[in-house]
Amino acid sequence: MTITCKLLLQNYAQSWQEATVHPFLEECQLGTIQLQQFNTWLRQDYLFVLEFTRMVGRVLASAPPQHFDVILGGLAALKDELNWFLEKASERQLNFNIKKQPTCIEYCEYMQSLTDKPYAVQATTFWAIEFSYNQGWQLPGKMPAPYNEFAERWGNPDFTKYVKLLEQQADEVLKTAETDIQKQAEESFLRVTKLEHDFWQMAFNTV
Ligand code: HMH
């Protein structure tokens, strides 16, 4: 049987839920998240996105030409996103001369380790990372300012469309992947769900 993104979500519904439903996001929606918690997330996530951008560059390097269009679109969005993070930080008078927290380090190292994996594993992981934010920021429902801007960045219809295309590309290569590679894609999906949960928890734990 061929694994698909949809099957991963079904088979690991609990892990997916833990990755995308978290008190951090619920408290953004309620407006009760503490400034320090939010700012920790913002600063650590910028450092994450820098490493994620490198990962996407490497995904492009592994991809067949028919997949370039979607991936290049993703990289263009990341160009904008990185500048936007700098703006948000400057509005909040935050700088980025901070250290990555252990969870952020672990996630970044995991993304680096994908370099040596087959493209099908990279494509599935890429989709899972983007879809987790697409879902996570939308599931709590409409957010109040200033969190609405964050929710819309990852929840807007264009981003949702882009994530669907990532899913199609991953499914397409999973279809012809060897069983062992499908297994690796499945493991990588699960690893992402765990890291996503830990990332929210890391920010939420800020005192
Ligand atoms: C931790 N996961 C994390 N940060 C992000 N910005 C995304 C996913 C979406 O790119």
Short characterization:
This protein has 207 residues and is mainly alpha-helical. It has helices spanning 5-11, 13-20, 23-30, 35-62, 68-91, 102-113, 119-136, 147-155, 157-175, 179-204.
Textual characterization of the structure:
With 207 residues, the chain is mainly alpha-helical. The protein has one domain: Heme oxygenase-like (Heme Oxygenase, Chain A, Up-down Bundle). 77% of the residues lie in helices and 0% in strands. The protein has 10 helices and no strands. It starts with a helix and ends with a helix.
Q: What is the CATH class name?
A: Mainly Alpha
CATH architecture title: Up-down Bundle
The number of distinct β-strands equals: 0
Order of helices and strands: HHHHHHHHHH
Q: What's the domain count?
A: 1
The CATH homologous superfamily is termed: Heme oxygenase-like
Strand content: under 5%
Q: Percentage of helical residues? A: over 70%
Count up the helices: 10
Q: What structural category characterises the helix and strand content? A: mainly alpha
* CATH topology group: Heme Oxygenase, Chain A
Radius of gyration: 16 Å
- Average residue-wise pLDDT: 97
Bound molecules: 4-amino-5-hydroxymethyl-2-methylpyrimidine
Please tag this protein with its features.
207 residues; mainly alpha; 77% helix; globular; binds 4-amino-5-hydroxymethyl-2-methylpyrimidine
Q: What's the layout of helices and strands?
A:
Elements: H1 5-11, H2 13-20, H3 23-30, H4 35-62, H5 68-91, H6 102-113, H7 119-136, H8 147-155, H9 157-175, H10 179-204
